[in-house]
Design a protein that fits this description.
With 451 residues, the chain is mostly helical. Helix content is 65%, strand content 0%. It contains 16 helices and no strands.
Length: 451
């Protein structure tokens, strides 16, 4: 439902990354298989050799696993959904979740059923996110608000309040010492400030950065960079810094001539080559540690897949939560365990019940209701992407996809979906996106000023 009388810019119909063609999906299919082969090799030479004790095992390949590369080759065709935002999110899901899960299942580190669940989840998200495809929110430009500026001011206000309450004693700018400061920084503040920080990081920061990049307001972008650094320093969460870079990369990946999914896939192939070079240098004694392999290959790419396997393996034979530990059941249901599912997995799989082994919609959905829980969370994720498509009146996916970039990590890899709504700013994000889309703001250029 397009707005009458609103002209569509010519560039909007031909902008890079606007749509996914069958040809592009076929090319991405081949690249996905290449990623699978490369990461399977790196699994052998790095993860199996150095991190076997964490669960990166290896077993002989049987006939049942032959379906894994076939499914990975077919997965890019889920990107043909009419929802361009869903196409981008599913691209990240294939690269960050599905392929690593396939490699882990191929080597026996996770049950084959985990890969089946992950693939089925992608299909459900793609189907649900496709409807409705043509309805768009009607903007009210006469009541425009400079959200990019106001969001930045709100983030700095939060930073100053936290500094006023806790002082600078837990302020940490070192990536190496994060674990020495994180718990103390969290315990020094009321719980509400942890929620506020999560909301600022996952919801407010990406929206503000995307708007500033769209309008080429470099000063505001620099301000958001400073804000991200201080949010990291106050919480000692490295993900905040890397997520800010992720936002910039996401926005500009739509500015290339070639389709954005090929840009991301090429990046993954490049990382695979980098991991191989680092491992070769370690073998020759030139490097003493595999920092890139540990931080990116193990933690960022393969650990979420491994944790999903732990969740499915454990809760397949033990009582499930059925959201009994969630606020949505209002305490009427008695949880089967005295701690949350992330701590249960941390205790039973790693021997430390104070370790929170967080995961996304696959693991947390299964912990609550098995396959029904995974289906329910996939359905909800598809509805969220359909809602974002409804709010997308920019006629270019770059803005909305940058909005959602950080929440991809939250929803697919880091936390329970209901928890994301209540504690990590997802609900506020959905409201903020609606307001920004309803009241778009465009700064007036000097050349456009009236004489």
């Amino acid at each position: 439902m397009e707005v009458k009388g609103q002209a569509i810019p010519k560039s909007a119909t031909t902008a890079p990354g606007m749509s996914i063609s069958s040809r592009n999906a076929a090319v991405f299919s081949a690249v996905s298989l290449l990623c699978f082969i490369l990461y399977n090799y790196l699994y052998d030479v790095i993860l199996f050799n150095y991190y076997y004790y964490l669960g990166f095992t290896k077993v002989p390949v049987d006939i049942d696993r032959i379906a894994i590369p076939i499914a990975i080759a077919l997965a890019p065709f889920t990107l043909l959904t009419r929802n361009r935002i869903a196409s981008f999110v599913l691209t990240l899901n294939i690269l960050f979740i599905l392929i690593p899960t396939g490699v882990c299942a191929w080597n026996g580190a996770v049950p084959l059923s985990v890969f089946h669940l992950t693939f089925a989840s992608s299909v459900v998200i793609a189907v649900v996110a496709s409807y409705p495809a043509n309805m768009k929110i009607r903007p009210v430009p006469q009541a425009s608000i400079d959200y990019s500026l106001w969001i930045l001011l709100a983030i700095f206000a939060l930073i100053f309040i936290i500094l006023f309450i806790s002082g600078t004693q837990f302020l940490n700018f070192s990536l190496v010492e994060v674990y020495e400061f994180r718990d103390q920084a969290r315990e020094s503040l009321p719980v509400i400030f942890e929620y506020a920080r999560s909301t600022a990081t996952a919801s407010m920061l990406p929206v503000g950065v995307a708007l500033a990049l769209r309008d080429k307001r470099i000063i505001l972008v620099a301000g958001y960079a400073v804000g991200a650094v201080f949010l990291f320093a106050l919480s000692s969460h490295k993900a905040i810094l890397f997520s800010f870079l992720f936002l910039i990369i996401t926005f500009y990946s739509f500015r290339f001539r070639y389709n954005y999914m090929m840009i991301w896939a090429a990046g993954f192939v490049g990382f695979a080559v980098l991991f191989y070079i680092e491992n070769a240098l370690m073998g020759r004694g030139i490097l003493e540690s595999n920092f890139v392999g540990d931080l990116l290959l193990r933690r960022t790419i393969f650990t979420p897949a491994l944790l999903n396997g732990y969740y499915v393996d454990f809760f397949s034979g033990n009582p499930m939560y059925y959201w009994s530990n969630s606020k949505i059941t209002l305490g009427f249901m008695q949880p089967p365990y005295s701690i949350g599912p992330s701590y249960v997995i941390g205790g039973f799989m790693f021997g430390d019940f104070t370790l929170s082994a967080n995961t996304g919609i696959i693991g947390s959905g299964y912990a609550n209701a098995g396959m029904i829980g995974v289906f329910a969370y996939s359905l909800m994720t598809g509805l969220i992407l359909s809602y974002l498509n409804f709010c997308d009146n920019e006629r270019s996916p770059a803005i909305m996809c940058t909005y959602f970039a950080m929440l991809f990590h939250t929803i697919f890899r880091d936390t329970d979906l209901i928890t994301a709504f209540l504690n990590h700013g997802l609900l506020i994000f959905l409201v903020l996106v609606l307001l920004v889309s309803r009241h778009p703001y465009r700064p007036q250029r000097a050349s456009e000023a009236p004489l």
